[in-house]
Amino acid sequence: MPKTQTLISVVDDDESMREAIRGLMKSLGYTAVAFASAEEFLSSCQIPRTSCLITDVQMPGITGLELHHRLLAAGKIIPTILITAYPDDSARERALGDGVVSYLSKPFDENDLLTCIRSSLNI
Q1: Which of 15, 56, 57, 110 has the most CB atoms lying inside 10 A of its own CB?
Q2: What does pTM read for this prediction?
Q3: What was the pLDDT predicted at 2?
């Protein structure tokens, strides 16, 4: 699938982080959309088109891991990368055990994020 047909959805309540990741994805040739909350993403029409989801762990309302669980419960298998400013080894292990493809601590290197995306897209 061409990169331009690969939709990366970014969910983060931190506008600067959300827009930085969205901008990076676009600069690499991906189609990217950004959402300020899990609720906003869940009510969007982008879920069926999303090839990879990048979401913050700690957000008001629905957390990134809860978002992952809700998608799975609805039968939506979207490779999910969790990002967090509050790394926790037990939370990381739990998330990876629940099927999250990657768990990155902020600040992270762009190359680490790209490696996670390529892995989640099997490219």
Answers
A1: 57
A2: 0.95
A3: 62
